[in-house]
Amino acid sequence: MTTLQPPRGTHDLLYPASDRAAKFEAEAARLAELSGFRRIVTPMFEDTALFHRGIGEGNDVVAKETYDFLDRGGNRLTLRPEGTAPVMRAIVSNKLWDDGLPIKVQYTAAMFRYERPQKGRVRQHHQVGVEAVGGEEASLDADVIALGWDILAAAGVGSVLLRLNSMGDRECRAAYIETFVSALRPRAAELSEDSQRRLEVNPLRIWDSKIPGDQEILADAPTLADALCDDCATHLHAVRAYLDEWGIPYAMTPGLVRGFDYYTRTTFEFQSQALDAAQNALGGGGRYDGLVEAIGGPSLPGVGFGIGVERVLLAQEAAGTVADVSALDCYVIPLREEDVSHALSFTRAARAAGIRTDLAHRVRGLKAQMKQANKLSVRAVALIGEQEAAAGAVTLRDMTSGEQQTLSAPAAIEQLTSGGTHR
Ligand code: HAM
């Protein structure tokens, strides 16, 4: 029988990377909480219609990448490809605006996109995200961007480039699209096949093309940044002024259009400078002032971002900040069957004191036990034999120096907490 593998484009996330992912998610959640974002958990699947209304029909993610299925009741459902539309649906379903505005929520969740798998691009990925809904002030955009910046700085992903743009509002963007399309039309035949298709269904996405021929044509094309109405230009200016004041560097990027149709005004992306262009987007987001209304709610403007956990792990590796940490501080070895009970009590007391501790449940020769302790890369081993058990003591061996001391259980725990044997 062939060995079963995870489905194409998915991975088992194994330690130590899985431990790093958990740490990253916890730290991101803590920083978001410090900024007033409450946790929200929405279903992993939604009515298919939500993504058509929210993300847009002309969009590649909706057109080609969703996992759609019929359940046994014949309902058309879709595994969420992103978090913003589901969160807006939850806000509308639960009328969360009754508790005051803005509504600030955060999530860590799996997203599903049927993409062509490659490094950093998978069919199930995970995002930490925040959404601030019910405020249109530029200070809110800047505050959200700064949070994303801080989360990535805390993650040790190396140098990050913040790209910033504005998508304008419904009116100035519509006018711009007309200008853009008429500027490109005469050279349409020279565009790549993909860009020719986009010219008909979603012209702004042509800005995403990495094909040199397309880029050459784009170099002469009018940009959205130059076509913003006064209100949108003022808003962008204010966002920039905050970032300038806080010393958060950014690159204005007229070609940054982002993947979803819901964006208005501010859009941004955090790019790793250590990763290749195909997977260098660590996170991205922006404002989506018409989204809540588009899915049947009141007119509530919003802004948020999503950061890809898999991409963060890759960037940490590329930045060389990945420490080879052991999962345990102390390994407790009972020398005889009669010592197991005392050893287990000591193990539990050490854990209660916050020391990561495990016990060799199976009693065997000291040599084999020490080999296992080395494999675990523990800093200390606690040996418990006849004498130790009788005295309520342990013999603590520092695995780096090889020094050994027999101490009472509380003194050993004190030593592990404060002394050189602690990580
Ligand atoms: P997004 O740019 O599509 O935005 O995804 C956010 C991040 O998720 C990306 O920057 C990337 O790190 C990661 N990501 C996306 N697709 C994949 C994939 N196939 N494999 C690995 N990582 C991936 C959104 O999803 C928006 N909902 C963000 C947002 C929140 N905008 C406003 N609020």
Q: In terms of topology, how is this protein built?
A:
Blueprint: H1 17-34, E1 38-39, E2 45-47, H2 48-55, H3 60-65, E3 67-70, E4 76-79, H4 84-93, E5 103-112, E6 124-133, H5 138-155, E7 160-166, H6 170-184, H7 193-201, H8 212-219, H9 230-246, E8 251-252, E9 264-272, E10 281-287, H10 291-294, E11 302-308, H11 309-319, E12 330-334, H12 340-352, E13 357-359, H13 366-375, E14 380-384, H14 386-391, E15 393-398, E16 404-408, H15 409-418
Parallel strand pairs: 1-5, 7-8, 12-13, 12-14
Antiparallel strand pairs: 2-4, 3-4, 5-6, 6-11, 7-9, 9-10, 10-11, 14-15, 15-16
Helix pairs in contact: 1-5, 1-11, 5-9
The protein binds histidyl-adenosine monophosphate.
Histidyl-adenosine monophosphate (HAM) binds next to strand 6, strand 10, strand 11 and helix 11.
Question: What does this protein structure show overall?
Answer:
The structure is a single chain. This protein has helices spanning 17-34, 48-55, 60-65, 84-93, 138-155, 170-184, 193-201, 212-219, 230-246, 291-294, 309-319, 340-352, 366-375, 386-391, 409-418; strands at 38-39, 45-47, 67-70, 76-79, 103-112, 124-133, 160-166, 251-252, 264-272, 281-287, 302-308, 330-334, 357-359, 380-384, 393-398, 404-408. It is an alpha+beta fold and 423 residues long. The strands form 3 sheets. An 8-stranded mixed beta sheet has the order 1-5-6-11-10-9-7-8, sandwiched between helices. α1 (17-34) crosses α11 (309-319). The longest helix is centred in the N-terminal third of the chain and has 18 residues, at 17-34. The radius of gyration is 27 Å and the shape is elongated. The structure holds histidyl-adenosine monophosphate (HAM). Histidyl-adenosine monophosphate (HAM) binds at residues 82-84, 113, 115, 120-122, 125, 127, 129, 131, 259, 281-286, 304-306, 308, 310-311.
